[in-house]
Design a protein that fits this description.
By secondary structure, this protein is of the alpha/beta class. The protein has 15 helices and 18 strands. It has a 7-stranded mixed sheet, with helices on both faces. Strands 5-4-3-6-7-17 form a 6-stranded mixed sheet, sandwiched between helices. A 3-stranded antiparallel sheet has the order 1-2-18.
Length: 469
């Protein structure tokens, strides 16, 4: 039986400090335990069932957006961990002649990972494998909302690790509050900006470093040169996968007025092609997920009704079935900034459409909101692409496609200001969980020629040294 939170934390602290840093081979062995578990067909079947019960997620999406992502990151770690684990030599300035300087990556210690419910396996295990690759002990708190997947994660981790190496703690916000009372060496949180501020405030009490993967209102710009049939299909898929419950999903469209009519028609036909070919309704598609629970269903219903009450026009969709937690992909226009749908992250299959005529208007629209996690630009005009990127800070940018910002481990993933702090994926995530220790090793020589008593000769030498740098 797993002990209480403070006992787990204390045992992990003791083990990390007593054992010291594991070598790369030991770290990789721990990471590969997870890989082997997820390749077992029996374990996969249990996972399919858990994610279906939580989100009605089809098996293809389980592989494409959960298991496959984790395995791709593990493969990347396997190829690169030996290189990351080496001392990283840096150049030596002239005043330090005779020394060797390098950076050594060491584990931070005991880390806390708090993961969300929308991609409950992916967003729990991706940070976990990087924390393990860096040599840390980990307490993982998955979301209580995706309870079936959280139970799956706990069973998996219990089978694979001793609790003084990795432990899963389940529970609601009261459990998270207890965890945040402890002086962790690092906290990795994925969730909303509102909760991120709470995490950061609690971490500050212990001067604990944090990685905050947050969200926000990621705009999707479509200019007058964009290939509308291609872009509308890609955007329809991006807004519909996981029923829009994705931190990198396009939150609202900002489209050139000349392309609006064509976009609406192509978006409608794309939804039909993807989820309603038989003509029986998107609600009967086996490939379309559901809203996670009644609370979030009602929140989305309130956003929709508030927009309609304030003058928004329904262009397509608008079907809400609470008994089944189903909301159809829904387009709205005649949008104004006073609508709630433009004040908070939607996190569902509702898509406001805003038009512009002059590209300068786009920057004005984007700047009314905090810096987004992702900025999407659909354009075949290089000058327009550069214009939209300049002066519009974002965690990442995807051009002429959607949802790719979390796909390349060679690129850092994360937000900026309100949409996040710190980066994940690849070496960037390894560094988040590592202490970057600087080392200067004197091999020969000395600086004793500039020791006191100071003279004109010493003054000349010091001036000369720094003049030559």
């Amino acid at each position: 039986m797993q002990p209480d939170i403070r006992t787990i934390f204390g045992a992990q602290k003791e083990k990390v400090h007593r054992k010291g840093s594991l070598d790369a081979k030991e770290r990789l062995e721990r990471v590969l335990r997870i890989d082997s578990y997820l390749r077992d067909e029996k374990n996969l079947q249990d996972l399919y069932e858990a994610l279906y019960n939580d989100l009605r997620k089809p098996e293809v999406e389980v592989i494409a957006t959960e298991v496959g992502v984790i395995q791709a990151q593990i493969s990347y770690i396997k190829k690169n961990l030996q290189k990351w684990d080496r001392d990283h030599r840096v150049s030596t300035p002239l005043p330090l002649l005779g020394t060797r300087s390098y950076i050594r990556y060491e584990p931070k210690g005991v880390v806390l990972i708090i993961s969300p419910w929308n991609f409950p396996l992916n967003l729990s295990l991706v940070p976990l494998v990087y924390a393990l690759a860096a040599g840390n002990a980990v307490i993982l708190k998955p979301s209580e909302i995706s309870s079936h997947t959280s139970a799956y994660i706990r069973k998996m981790i219990t089978e694979l690790f001793r609790w003084n190496e990795v432990a899963v703690v389940e529970g609601d916000a009261t459990v998270a509050t207890k965890l945040l009372e402890l002086p962790f060496d690092h906290i990795f949180f994925t969730g909303s900006p509102r909760v991120g501020k709470i995490i950061m405030a609690k971490a500050a009490e212990h001067l604990t470093s944090v990685t905050l993967e947050l969200g926000g209102k990621s705009p999707a710009i479509i200019d007058e040169t964009a290939d509308i049939p291609r872009i509308a299909r890609r955007l329809a898929w991006a807004k519909s996968i996981n029923c829009g419950q994705t931190c990198v999903t396009p939150d609202h469209v900002i489209i050139h007025d000349s392309k609006k009519k064509e976009f609406i028609e192509e978006f409608r036909s794309s939804i039909t092609e993807l989820y309603n070919r038989a003509g029986t309704g998107t609600e009967h598609s086996p490939d379309y997920c559901r809203i996670i629970n009644p609370h979030h269903f009602q929140r989305l219903g309130s956003l929709y009704q508030d927009a309609i009450d304030k003058g928004a026009h329904l262009l397509t969709g608008g079907n809400f079935e609470e008994d089944d937690l189903f909301i159809a992909p829904t387009l709205l226009d005649n949008i104004s900034e006073d609508m709630s749908i433009m004040q908070e992250e939607i996190f569902g299959p509702l898509l406001p459409v805003i038009t512009y005529n002059d590209r300068s208007e786009v920057k004005d629209i984007i700047r009314r909101h905090p810096d987004p996690l992702m900025l999407y630009i659909a354009s075949d005009d290089r000058k327009n692409i550069q214009y939209f990127m300049d002066g519009n800070p974002a965690g990442g940018t995807v051009i002429n496609d959607y949802m790719l910002g979390y796909s390349n481990p060679n690129l850092p993933f994360g937000g900026v200001s309100n949409s996040g702090m710190g980066k994940s994926l690849g070496f960037h995530c390894f560094m988040e969980f590592s202490n970057k220790r600087s080392v200067i090793h004197r091999k020969w020589g000395s600086l004793d020629m500039i020791y006191p008593p100071y003279s004109d000769r010493v003054l000349w030498m010091v001036r000369s040294l720094y003049r030559w740098m």
